[in-house]
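Per your request, structure below.
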């Protein structure tokens, strides 16, 4: 061992686990221990059966990475993990609200068709200028 060249001390929790003499009685960790043969593996909401191979569940793709969860036999499927944390969710909702308010302000400020009556937006302006009929008024003066 490179980290502990003199080996782990006998009182170290890792060493007691390796030796098989770890005493968890009276601790919260004792509730998390699942005896051999009394656990089941879950992935994608499906329980892995011991008689089936992993290929039956995920296919023949060797590069697939899966994360399985271990529960006691007879229990229902473990709950799904959140896709994003509460902090990320709050930030995303705040960003969406700011964006929505900004779009409201832009929509109220600009109707979008104010330029239709402007002289620079007249599609016939070039033709009228070439014909010399730029400032003709049809009403009485």
């Amino acid at each position: 061992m490179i980290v502990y060249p003199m080996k782990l001390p006998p009182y170290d929790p890792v060493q007691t686990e390796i030796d098989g003499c770890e005493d968890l009685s009276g601790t919260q960790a004792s509730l998390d221990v699942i005896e051999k043969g009394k656990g089941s593996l879950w992935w994608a909401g499906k329980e892995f059966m011991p008689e089936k191979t992993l290929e039956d569940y995920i296919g023949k793709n060797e590069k697939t990475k899966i994360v399985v969860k271990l529960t006691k036999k007879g229990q229902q499927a473990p709950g799904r993990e959140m896709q994003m944390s509460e902090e990320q969710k709050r930030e995303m909702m705040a960003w969406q609200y700011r964006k929505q308010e900004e779009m409201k302000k832009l929509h109220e400020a600009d109707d979008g068709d104010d330029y239709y009556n402007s002289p620079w937006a007249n599609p016939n302006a070039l033709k009228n200028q070439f014909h010399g009929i730029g400032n003709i008024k049809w009403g009485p003066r």
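The mean pLDDT is 83.

Regards,
D.
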